[in-house]
Design goal:
Layout lengths: L1 H7 L1 E3 L17 E3 L9 E5 L1 H6 L6 H12 L2 E3 L5 E3 L3 E3 L2 E3 L7 E8 L5 E7 L14 E2 H17 L5 E13 L3 E11 L5 H8 L4 H15 L9 H23 L1 E2 L21 E2 L23 H20 L3 H13 L1 H17 L4 H18 L3 H14 L3 H4 L7 H24 L18 H10 L7 H16 L10 H10 L18 H4 L9
Parallel strand pairs: 1-4
Antiparallel strand pairs: 2-5, 3-11, 6-7, 8-9, 9-12, 10-12, 11-12, 13-14
The protein binds adenosine monophosphate (AMP) and magnesium ion (MG).
Length: 533
């Protein structure tokens, strides 16, 4: 059967030179799997600049020739497609049988900078890991992943990238029939904590070692020079994932399903499912419909990361030392340092958001600011962004405008609290020599260090992918697909406008733009996201 399929699937010339180092790890790591062709592939989006970054600049004619390969209707030459095996803890419970149920890795490409990248089709049909699933993805979640992952990249946060989104022209059946799509995802690798768990839980120490050595060579080459390479690997992964989750917190991102199979060993944001950006600040915010208890709520992401890293440490115990008791003692000690290490990275990022140089001064000020935002129910993104405006305009007004969503009586009391924090903050800025005059209402513009404002604006986005905007883009894509006329080129103006704006999220030009506006608190009520890619 497999031979017939291989014979029957078209081969097309590939612009990529594929490598297959992961497949070479051995049979238990991945299963050769071909995509299943689709009826009527047509472009939703294509990332020309990412192609160039991969070292494969492409003309429009060459792009057209790539459509069959990125829809799963043809295999690009040199590719040996595989589905990867993995396991993982989902909502705290171990599942030994996960794996690429709807994803097929075409191969690895090496960029001109020498970085190895996976090129993977997501939603390209059933694989040996599909269990009862159809191996397909609905169009909405594909559009969502394309937009959000590219927005994350533009925000400067490590993430898988979106190379293409192709509508399949055939339905997928969820609660109802929906248009289907295939996403082409580019990642430093698709190795997860769950990949380690797959072998470690079965006691397959040789495989754990082979995987660890692959990961060291691929992602953390310095560990190979260490006296204790597997301890060094644990520490490198811990540092990478701390940097990642702290950067999510910095921009109000909620991953939504931080199961161990969704945590990339390379420290990239991966598996955009029910993820979303928070509007009004509330650490309990969660959008995922399946996360009933809020395990993966915004404010829980630090402690869940520590829990996930403990699962990773368990996988390495037998490599760290022959005596497992020694390994356990090491892992416990390393994990005991997690909280402090996380806070160091997190408060360093948060200090930059308020322009304060010293951690000891910044930390209580950040905590007080977040308490204020929660108390006053202020938009997380705009609260930080407006701090730059407060300095530029020399008045509290840009910040106080954020309270407009409240009644007049409420506003007076709230303004009082907000002004108290702003005054305290400005005194700290004056003490560090960045602003000269701290009197309320006076014009600070001339006395404010321009580099301070610039620094604040560089880490506080003016625009993020707001849930209601993302939903409008998805609705447009659904409508276009449902009313396709043969021969007429499909256009997605809302997608294009939002995607373009999100490419320069720190740009002041967005401050007055409609796309950057938060929804009202009433509009935010009850918003839910779903896994179902
Ligand atoms: P996720 O919720 O994306 O982390 O996926 C959890 C597991 O379910 C992974 O092993 C996926 O490959 C698998 N899965 C999710 N959706 C499908 C689908 N439509 N068909 C087959 N497998 C799926
Ligand atoms: Mg997943």
């Amino acid at each position: 059967m497999a031979v017939v399929l291989i014979m029957s699937l078209l081969k097309v010339n590939s612009p990529f030179t594929f490598h297959n180092t992961y497949a070479a790890l051995g049979e238990s790591f991945a299963v050769p799997t071909l995509p299943t062709p689709v009826k009527n592939p047509n472009w939703l989006a294509f990332n020309t600049s990412l192609m160039a970054e991969l070292g494969v600049p492409i003309t429009p004619v060459e792009q057209e020739a790539l459509l069959p390969a990125l829809a799963g209707n043809a295999v690009p030459s040199g590719a040996t497609p595989i589905a990867q095996a993995y396991a993982g803890h989902q909502f705290g419970h171990f599942n030994p049988q996960l794996g690429d149920g709807r994803a097929i890795l075409l191969g690895e490409v090496v960029t001109p900078q020498g970085q190895r990248k996976d090129v993977q089709l997501k939603g390209a049909g059933v694989t040996p890991f599909s269990r009862s699933g159809d191996g397909r993805a609905a169009l909405g979640p594909v559009v969502r992943e394309y937009l959000l992952s590219e927005a994350m990249h533009a925000l400067g946060i490590k993430t898988t990238r979106a190379l293409a989104a192709v509508a399949t022209g055939q339905p997928v059946y969820r609660d109802t029939a929906l248009p289907g799509a295939v996403l082409t995802r580019v990642a430093s690798s698709h190795i997860r904590i769950g990949t380690f768990e797959c072998f470690a839980r079965r006691g397959e120490i040789t495989q754990v070692k082979r995987l660890s050595d692959h990961v060291i060579a691929r992602h953390y080459p310095d560990c190979a020079k260490s006296q204790a390479p597997y301890k060094a690997l644990f520490e490198a992964v811990m540092a990478a994932q701390i940097a990642l989750v702290a950067s999510w917190m910095q921009v109000g991102f909620i991953h939504g399903v931080m199961n161990t199979d969704n945590m990339s060993i390379a420290g990239e944001t991966i598996d955009y499912g029910p993820c979303a950006f928070m509007d009004t600040y509330d650490p309990a915010t969660k959008y995922s419909a399946i996360d009933v208890r809020g395990r993966y709520a915004f404010g829980n992401q630090k402690s869940i990361l520590q829990w996930n890293l403990a699962r990773f440490a368990e996988c390495l115990l037998r490599l760290i030392d022959e005596d497992v008791d020694v390994s356990v003692a090491y892992a416990e000690q390393a994990l005991a340092g997690f909280s402090e290490q996380f806070d160091t990275v997190y408060f360093d990022l948060m200090a930059k958001k308020i322009g304060i140089q010293t951690r000891a001064i910044a930390e209580p000020m950040v905590i007080a600011f977040l308490t204020l935002l929660e108390d006053l129910q202020i938009d997380y993104t705009l609260a930080f962004r407006q701090l730059g405006q407060v300095l530029l305009m020399g008045t509290h007004e840009p910040f106080l405008q954020l309270l407009n969503d409240h009644s007049q009586a409420e506003q007076a009391a709230q303004q009082h609290k907000a002004i108290a924090w702003l005054e305290h903050w400005k005194s700290a800025l004056a003490k560090q020599g960045d602003i000269a005059n701290v009197d309320a209402g006076t014009h600070l513009q001339a006395d404010t260090n321009a580099a301070l404002v610039q620094g604040i604006q560089q880490v506080n986005p003016a625009i993020i992918p707001r849930n209601y905007q993302v939903e409008a883009v998805i609705a447009e894509a659904l409508a276009v697909q449902q009313n396709m006329t043969a021969g007429a080129p499909a256009r997605y103006p809302k997608f294009e406008a939002l995607h373009r704006a999100l490419q320069a999220p720190y740009d002041a030009a967005h401050e007055s733009c409609d796309l950057a506006q938060p929804p009202t608190r009433a509009e935010q009520q009850g918003y839910k996201t779903f896994c179902g890619t």
